[in-house]
Amino acid sequence: MKQTGDLNLVKKINKSIVLDRIRHDSPVSRARLAELTGLTKATVSSLVGELIESGLVDEIGAGESSGGRKPVMLLFNGTAGYAVGIDLGVDYILGVLTDLNGVIVEQHTMKHSNASVDAVIGDVIHSIRELIGRAPQSTYGIVGIGIGIPGISDEQGNVLFAPNLGWENVPLQQRIESELGIPVVIDNEANAGAVGEQQFDAGVGQNASYLVYVSIGSGIGTGIIIRGELFRGSSGFSGELGHVTIEQNGKPCRCGSSGCWELYASESALLEKARAVLPEDDVDIEALLRRAGDGDKRVIELFEQLGRSLGVGLVNIINAFNPELIVIGGRLAEAESWMLGPLTEVMERRSMPFPRAKLRVQFSGLGMKSTVLGACSLAIAKFFASTKVSVEG
Amino acid sequence: MKQTGDLNLVKKINKSIVLDRIRHDSPVSRARLAELTGLTKATVSSLVGELIESGLVDEIGAGESSGGRKPVMLLFNGTAGYAVGIDLGVDYILGVLTDLNGVIVEQHTMKHSNASVDAVIGDVIHSIRELIGRAPQSTYGIVGIGIGIPGISDEQGNVLFAPNLGWENVPLQQRIESELGIPVVIDNEANAGAVGEQQFDAGVGQNASYLVYVSIGSGIGTGIIIRGELFRGSSGFSGELGHVTIEQNGKPCRCGSSGCWELYASESALLEKARAVLPEDDVDIEALLRRAGDGDKRVIELFEQLGRSLGVGLVNIINAFNPELIVIGGRLAEAESWMLGPLTEVMERRSMPFPRAKLRVQFSGLGMKSTVLGACSLAIAKFFASTKVSVEG
DNA sequence: CTAAGTTTGTTTAATGAATTTACAAAGTCG
DNA sequence: CGACTTTGTAAATTCATTAAACAAACTTAG
């Protein structure tokens, strides 16, 4: 049954439009909001009144006059609540506490040994409790928890499959919600990263409605934003672009296929190639980055080669999704200076002029924090989408 | 400026919900509509009244009682208006006239020589005029014209690029609208095909919200439906999946890349391979289909090989878009019986269990008519989306 | 054949969110 | 200082939905 229209819906739509505008254009006056949104001054006045009542918006006094009465400036009250973001890695847990503006207030990192599903969940909960404990007092308290995982999940927050953790069908959301009594959102690590880059000032994808985030780790993960929203596919399994074939008779991949992109353009691919050139001891990412930084020609050539392989896959992304922005993240993003040139060269040679015309390719602006911040952002978005705030005030 | 909410919007939403339900569940009573939509009986009554007033809905008398007063059954009046659909090919124009239900009423085919842009547009207009001339009298007359083109277009209906026609920046929509004074929609041939398969009873994709239509012609075109809507990418250039690389150092392609899927899995690829095996005279699609039908092993092997190459690209589609349905269309769809086996074998071997679980792969249900019917459907959808019908009545 | 119960669809009054119009307050500027 | 602007609120109006009541039409049990 489709969502029907009624007065409640109207108010919800308008209130969320007004709140969004205040969030992104603070400080702003009621009169200006009326102009920006197309609503009448009276409507804006009334909605702003309720938002102030609910603690999400504050008046911060008069602004500059433009030839008449001074406007009363409004500010989004980012400290009306806090959210927890978790980046659940294969051997680490990175957690942050942010206010509703996404400003990081507290941080917590720990290793986990992946001994068992229960042990990991215990560690995650411990990490969250730690952060919650340090949260300042606020009107709404902890509004939600977002968790980025190295695997795929469904809408109910079940981890369907996370090969690198060895997880299958783990009801992660439900377990953490019942333990802590706070709304939880689960999403793929790359999806969260995409949201992070799109939503945060420090990210490179603000205002991008069509964005693909490519996370280079031991494999390649991708998060896809279409029309400003995460694209999840028909069963939550979209964007396994790391397993797009770029060499139909290439190396076999653990996914069952062969010649997958990630076999040529991931950390693993880099390390494999490095082993042929360097002493075993120097074959890890840190060391390679250091050597390249010191000007080691052999290592720089490895990164350039990786850049070219990345380029081949990026062209596939362009042809499939026609995004306005591709963001490259993960630890290897640090190798930007050596990869960008070859990558761009391959991309320009192999792609068609049209989709390329309006395309930007950038390396992550948030670095290792894109996933954890994106997770926070998902939690905050869920909070604002819940009717509690939007309508009932 | 985002769309704000007001009473007009509410009515538009509800009216279109009610009309959609009548369109798809005819015959249906007001009481049943109230149940189906979640609106109250009073609201449904009022909206249905206006729809009857506007000629789009008819009362067709009493239905079966279910233990009380007999319901008055409502029927969508498909003949309240007509739409023209055009499939503009490289050397032909296929046109149909359908009623608002998408039932074909008239048909018109012609060859065109592609002498010049103006000549082709002249032929298209001639074809449309011919069909309009044969349209029955109706309340709304010709509500719109949809045109599927072998190239890409923008939202204003400009043909940006159509290599096989040799067109660049042709304002097709504007030219036809100013000539005929009827709303025109332009879209890619494969996009139209996808809509056709999704919207029509005879298509295989009814109710599919995540569908990829693969049109095999001299190249490969694809139309992608996400959340029930055509996906166009950030600049109208999505879904050039024919140019996804499946062999990074493969044959060079006219697109600038090399190893593109369509070099291995299109009509051209088939014909090229056939030339190595058969006398030159027998190398055309019709002949190959005939020979395969006669049991020619060498030709059947060619089709099987094509099926395998198709499979490789389909796996890429699955990993990228995670659709619930892939529809294979174009003339080569006739070779289903020889291609399906090898195609499925490759697909199952190379794809991951998860996205494959809920996936169907089917050959076109509309055959050569998917594009032309999809084009009609786009025109009809535009008509219903226009406020004229939806609100002002 | 009648009385009771059901189902359908309309009517009427109430609700509530946005709009329109008017206006007061607080500025600027010559 | 007075004319003009701009900001924000208030009151009256509009209008689509809902809720409740009801009339009409029908079935079914006895």
Automatic annotation (TrEMBL), chains A, B:
Record domain HTH iclR-type: where: 23-57
UniProt keyword annotations, A-Z: Carbohydrate metabolism, Xylose metabolism
Gene Ontology molecular-function annotations: DNA binding
Domain of life (superkingdom): Bacteria
Pfam family name, one: ROK
Gene Ontology terms describing biological process: D-xylose metabolic process; regulation of DNA-templated transcription
InterPro entries: ATPase_NBD, ROK, ROK_cs, Tscrpt_reg_IclR_N, WH-like_DNA-bd_sf, WH_DNA-bd_sf
The family this protein is said to belong to: Belongs to the ROK (NagC/XylR) family.
Stated role: Transcriptional repressor of xylose-utilizing enzymes.
Name this polypeptide is given: ROK family protein
Organism field: Paenibacillus cremeus
